[in-house]
Amino acid sequence: MTSVLDLTHQRFDGSSPHRGGLSAHNISAWFGERKVLERVSLEMPANTVTALIGPSGCGKSTFLRILNRMHELIPGAALAGEVLLDGDDVYEARIKASDTRKRVGMVFQKPNPFPSMTIRENVLSGLKLAGIKTNSPDQVVQDALIAAGLWREVSDRLDAAGGALSGGQQQRLCIARSLAVNPEVLLMDEPCSALDPTSTRRVEETIKEIASRVTVVVVTHNMQQAQRVSDTCAFFLAAENEPGRIVESGSTEEVFNNPQDPRTADYVNGRFG
């Protein structure tokens, strides 16, 4: 079996072939009787950053959770359509949800390191949860923390509690924990919304750095952030008592500077939302 260390080096040194291309086709989603997404289709190319933008309540976070099968954990949740990861439908009966979540990691809005674990233990906890063994845990920790832009700040205190780090450092620790599993895709749900400007800048730098090794899909309400970090962009919108849809998608430059739909122009220029 290939070790986690080997996989990590293949990914982090850029020598492995591109993988992690995501595509969603005709995704509709429900919470009980309430439909929250209507026939959403989106291409998220490998090794790029895709930003999901739009007002609150238009289905962005629901769509994000669908991409790694977290939506199905919610009682009463249902969906239609397909999600392809490198051409494989992640909702096929033969594919375990746990296997999909190894390949498609998630970083949440609020940093959630395990407070009683050390920094080192936090990074390795992802491997334990995924049932992955490695013969070189120290190297995995170092590689993941370097990739998350945190190594220089914590290399001399790996046995300190993860919960003692600043908010921005905790978020990057969570990114390192996800990267240690060697995912192909990393989903990020408003990863900077609880952070100060300096921490936000550092997380954004991390996003841009890891995008050469892993596909990133990020939900953000910060239009400047979407412009700074993303390559492609999708604008979600939901009318009153209607499910969310994608109004427009494409390169970030086109969506922001040459939108084809007036609703997109109004949103990215701050006229609503």
In a few lines, what is going on in this structure?
The protein has 273 residues and is an alpha/beta fold. It is built from 11 helices and 10 strands.
Kindly describe this structure:
By secondary structure, the protein is of the alpha/beta class. The protein has one domain: P-loop containing nucleotide triphosphate hydrolases (Rossmann fold). The chain is 36% helix and 23% strand. It is built from 11 helices and 10 strands. The chain has helices at 4-12, 60-67, 97-103, 119-130, 137-147, 151-154, 167-180, 197-210, 223-229, 252-257, 262-268; strands at 22-31, 34-44, 49-53, 77-85, 88-89, 104-107, 185-189, 215-219, 232-237, 245-251. The strands form 2 sheets. It has a 6-stranded mixed β-sheet, with helices on both faces. It has a 4-stranded antiparallel β-sheet with strand order 2-1-4-5, covered by helices on one side. Helix 1 (4-12) runs parallel beside helix 5 (137-147) and helix 5 crosses helix 7 (167-180). The longest helix is centred in the middle third of the chain and has 14 residues, at 167-180. The chain starts with a helix and ends in a 5-residue tail after the last helix. Residues 1-17 have low confidence and may be disordered.
